[in-house]
Amino acid sequence: MNTKYKLTYTVKKPLNREPKLHDLVSSFITQHEQAYDRNHGPIPHLCASNHRVGVYGLVQNELSLSIPDLTAFPQHTVICALQCAGNRRHTMRTKLKEVHGIDWFDGAVMNCAWTGPLLCDVLAAAGIKVDEKTDAHVAFSCFQTPCQDDEWYGASIPLSRALDPEASILLALKMNGEDLPPNHGAPVRVVTPGIAGARSVKWLDRITVQTQESNNYYQRHDYKILPPEASTKEEAEQWWDRCDALQDMPVNSVIGIPSPNASVQLDENEMVEVKGYALPSGGDGPIVRVEVSGDEGKTWTDAQILRDESVKEKYKGCVELKWAWALWRTKVKVEKGKGRKIWSRATDRSGNTQKAPMEVAWNFRGVAYNGYGEVDELEIV
Ligand SMILES: Nc1nc2c(c(=O)[nH]1)N[C@H]1C(S)=C(S)[C@@H](COP(=O)(O)O)O[C@H]1N2
Ligand SMILES: [Mo]
Q1: Ligand 2 centroid from CA 165, angstroms
Q2: Cα 272 to Cα 367: distance, rounded to the nearest angstrom
Q3: Residue 197 beta carbon below 6 angstroms from any ligand 1 atom
Q4: What span is annotated as the signal peptide, if there is one (predicted)?
Q5: Which of the residues in the chain have pLDDT under 50?
Q6: Which of 38, 189, 290, 293 has the CB geometry, 3.0–4.6 Å to 202, for a possible disulfide?
Q7: What secondary structure, in 3-state letters, does the chain show?
Q8: 207/135 same-domain check
Q9: Strand-by-strand arrangement of the 271-279 sheet
Q10: pLDDT computed for residue 4 by the predictor
């Protein structure tokens, strides 16, 4: 363990928190104060002036890159949603069956503008020794602190994805135009658009091109969709090696306004205003449609997908919204009374759409839940 730098929080009690949904859906770009935190260990406060990222493994030239070295590569800005695989776990737990993991509600996601070199450019500088067709992987490691289940934090993605410039995978130095804050990975983190947040390794120390996936606990023993028969920790043991690591996240949407249990006054047209976010599946963005139902799916109304023009102005040259979330709003009819529900259903460019909650398969870790967005226990007056 590196004890040269300040650490905050502990292995036993890492920082894990999510913002209020009402606030989260109020801004297209998530400010870092509003962004969820997910840590498997303490937060290291590293010094940008002596930090280095090593590039090792199946490469022609091993590299040791300082932050100025990373800044010397062409810099790209990508607006993307970064989401914990366990986002919405609470809904899976309450609608389907008990699951194992942090009780995330719908706020373990942020939509930020990330800036830094493309991973593929850094790999090109090192020179890859295997051809694109070989089943190889790019592993990311952080050795700064021990974690709850391993001595270090690591993840990997397929080499083919890492080499694809269209995949927009970054070694991010900036978040929303400013240096990364320590809790989000300063001075450099990986950002893997469309892929589960677990692969976006913070406080990046090393990139390794290898023939195996990362052997870190969080790649091999967590962040997988196990089949429903793996229903206890003991049963899960037989499945970890047989299931693929979760990479692309599924299409999703969530209702942020109104809040559950709220008492909502109908407007002059007897309608309720509804707002939320929607996320495309993996690389299949952007979101093309969001529908909302105030009568448990009998009728659906198309929501308006909101476009934030100021973002185009601020992040010129980065108007591609394929990886971003979509914020949306609409008004729906809901009958007066108690115990009312509103649902949302998103569809992305490739036609992937959400299923009704009861059609979603349960999994032991409660990852990648994407049943309809739902707000319930409303009192409509
Ligand atoms: N080094 C390191 N990187 C990490 C993690 C971690 O615990 N340690 N958590 C991962 C997980 S599970 C998620 S969802 C995202 C969360 O990023 P955030 O804390 O910036 O929200 O970081 C990923 N990168
Ligand atoms: Mo996560």
Answers
A1: 24
A2: 31
A3: yes
A4: none
A5: 1-3
A6: 189
A7: CCCCCEEECCCCCCCCECCCHHHHCCCCCCCHHHCCECCCCCEEECCCCCCEEEEEECECCCEEEEHHHHHHCCCEEEEEEEECCCCCHHHHHHHCCCCCCCCCCCCCEEEEEEEECEHHHHHHHHCECCCCCCCCEEEEEECCCCCCCCCCEEEEEEHHHHHCHHHCCEEECEECCEECCHHHCCCCEEECCCECHHHCCCCCCEEEEECCCCCCHHHHCCCCCCCCCCCCHHHHHCCHHHCCCCCECCCEEEEEECCCCCEECCCCCCEEEEEEEEECCCCCCCEEEEEEECCCCCCCEECEEECCHHHHHHCCCCCCCCCCCEEEEEEEECCCEEEEEEEEEEEECCCCECECHHHCCCCCCCCCCCECEEEEEEEEC
A8: yes
A9: 252-257, 271-279, 326-333, 304-306
A10: 58
CB of 202 shorter than 6 A to ligand 1: yes
Q: Which atom of ligand 1 is nearest to the CA of 85?
A: 14
- pLDDT of the residue at 316: 73
Same domain, 236 and 263: no
The answer on 229 and 157 residing in a single domain is yes
Judge if the beta carbon of residue 303 lies within 6 A of ligand 1.
Answer: no
pLDDT in tens, 116-128: 999 999 999 999 9
CB distance 255 to 344 below 8 Å:
yes
Same domain? 227 vs 328: no
Which of 250, 258, 233, 241 is CA-nearest to residue 364? 233
Q: Which amino acid is at 166?
A: E
Token pair recorded at residue 334: 């809901």
What spacing in Å lies between the alpha carbon of 154 and ligand 1's midpoint?
10
Is residue 12 included in any domain, yes or no? no
Closest listed ligand to the CA of 85: 2
Judgement on whether residues 237 and 259 belong to the same structural domain of the protein = no
Q: Which residues pair with 276 in a beta bridge?
A: 255, 328
Residue 319: per-residue pLDDT: 62
Angle value at C-alpha 189, between 313 and 32, nearest 5 degrees: 50
The answer to whether 198 and 133 have CB atoms below 8 angstroms apart is no
Range of the structural domain that residue 367 is part of: 252-380
pTM greater than 0.70? yes
